[in-house]
Amino acid sequence: MTPTELLPAPPPHAAARRALLAGSAGNLVEWYEFGVYGCFATVIAANFFTPHPGTPGGGAEALVATYASFALAFFFRPVGALLFGRIGDRFGRRPALVLVIGLMTLATTLIGLLPTRADIGAAAPWLLTFLRVLQGLSAGGEFGGAVSLMVEYAPPGRRGLYGAWQSFTVALGLLAGAGTAAALAAVLPAEALYAWGWRIPFLLALPLGTVALWLRAALEEPPGAPPGGPPGRSAAAGPTEAVDATDATGPTGPTGPAGPGEQARAVVLGIGRIMGWSAAGYAFLVVLPSHLQSALGASFRDALLATALVNLGFAASILPAGLLSDRVGRRPVMLGGALGIAVLAHPLLHLLQSPGASPQTRAAAVLTAGVLVGLLAGPGPAMLAEMFPRRVRCTGLGLSYALANAVFSGCAGLFITALTARTADTAIPAHYAAGACALSAVALLTLRGNDHREPLR
To answer: Is-above-0.85 flag for pTM?
Structure first.
């Protein structure tokens, strides 16, 4: 019996849709929180990281400290990817996904209940940082489990589209976070927003997370992966048919890396392929609000509007990019996004900074930036899933994503804010995004043109 013959038949569309919904719901909750944290960075800085809490703005040093806490959480993502990835690969996708959404919901809700520095002094930022670490652990396990689930349930020829739903719900979460922040800024005076209004978005994570937890608890495992069964063993295989369909050898396409050495190289290559996505995504989608305020003098509401627009462009392009990659391949779509950002990052930021630019021109600039990031984020999840065999897929793709995000996303706010303050160069976000995407384009050239047509192993 060949490995191909042991691969499970495509699942029913109803089960695939349920898996898509359950996987997407947790992503939305996770990235809703990250969007809220990015939008309220200056408010959090004022309440937790400044010696004189409650002062709007919090100062540059407090903002840097806020992003340092943000970055620290990202460096715990690889730990979460390893921990929950092994659970997902060894015991099934469902238990891993249930655990990560429970931990994320708990940590986010507790942030909304935290006493500030004015209440308990220097312990406040430490407690906040601890909860951010818990969020980092859960977020590290979220991506590998959710993407594996979605892609393994995908009908033939639809892995790019199904994987793109992970990125799409990231965009929806960021939009929900930015929209909630903008709504609160519109209806609350600044004093109330800084005093207690910032807590509301974090507390909303409790009902959202409860719904996601309920959806995931009812999940069925993808065909061929019984919970607790030996990694890589097909459900259709009997005791004497333990042929591992994931052991087919090959480079870093759907045939998957064979041994630990090749798997490690696949992780490094995966990081290179998505570093531009990580860096540009955070520079434009998360760091932009505080950068527009601290470096360009924009108001809080104008910065939030720009963030909503860039995330709208991001969201609008993700699913079409994933679908297109199912037809023409991952490489041309992702290369287009990486090269587009490398070439256009500086002109787009210049338009935002230009006093003579019309509101419509600035809106077009931020929408374009979001669309270009979406070209990377749409095919990206499926591309990573196709690099690893099933028995290590949760761990491999989760670790690639977590390490890339730890270095190129988690440090983005800290790097951009600190370097802008030191050099007074307001184009630092463009330097950062363009440089990372140029390097990422080189790694993307290693993609094979027919990877999207090969069966998963």
So the answer is: no
